[in-house]
Amino acid sequence: MEKIQLLILGSGPAGYTAAIYACRAGIQTVVYEGLVPGGQLTQTTDIENFPGYPNGVNGFQMMEDFKAQAQRFGAQVRYGLATRTDFSARPLRVEIDGADWVEATAVIIATGASAKYLGLPSEEKFKGSGVSACATCDGFFYKGKDVAVVGGGDTACEEATYLAGMCRKVYLIVRRDVLRASKAMQERVFNTPNIEVLWRHRTREILGDANGVTGVSLDNDAEGTVVTKDIDGFFLAIGHHPNSEVFQPWVEVDEQGYIITEGKSCRTNVPGVFAAGDVQDPTYRQAVNAAAAGCRAAMDAERWMAENA
Ligand code: NDP
Hints:
By secondary structure, this protein is of the alpha/beta class.
């Protein structure tokens, strides 16, 4: 069985930053890219809020740059997905792609989170050309335009309020007749004049043409009718799903599945196993935070290996 010093699972900003720091500390490091090589940023368009890129950068290109930087210091980057884990003994064991097991002295889990989607074919079709799951990332492109946000939680309210600051009109599509969001967040929505809440509405289909999204067709459950709204952007805010299942037999998670880390560190409850980025961060969920967590995870792993391995 192959023996690896530091195994990093996931290839978003957390995984690659951890690899850069670990390799520069002289640790033999292997990165398995996971289901979406490069992570969630490869599924968006331009990134304009990552420091160091004054003119913005394409998300896919940025992740290629992260990868090249990690490889420059010796990280071995491989295709592959962790499918099973055995953290019951040392060395730690991880199965890749349902086939071979590898052994590692330390593991950094940086498998990220996935935005939940409604599951409509039109949503898939317009992903990246009008359909987005991140207002902070993509809202700027809809300046002065009309958009819709679907969801009724804190994220939906926060994103609707954020978008209202730059868009002409924001429709908030809510499937029930109440919001799940905190009272304070609800007040912000109700006090923002260019947000219109569409109570008891469900999305039937996102409409568009070769240039992207042009509208949305909705079931108005309150009146039993179908309505269409003209919009340029459709934002999903119905929750995220941390990619932690494969580690859950061993690693402690919260009620939503986010991996629990100790204080400011990236240490999990399993010695030698660390977690960084969106898989352990339900709150900040931005690339720059994930990168910072990757750095912390590598430093924690380095210290742990020096003391224990
Ligand atoms: P939540 O799970 O809290 O809310 C998801 C929302 O999406 C609900 O209103 C739900 O409707 C709706 N929804 C789910 N599935 C569908 C669907 N298929 N069609 C239509 N609507 C759907 O997720 P959030 O991302 O909003 O929040 C996650 C956690 O993060 C929460 O604990 C939240 O408080 C926290 N958070 C805190 C913030 C802050 O404090 N600043 C900011 C953002 C998040 P329904 O209500 O009917 O179930």
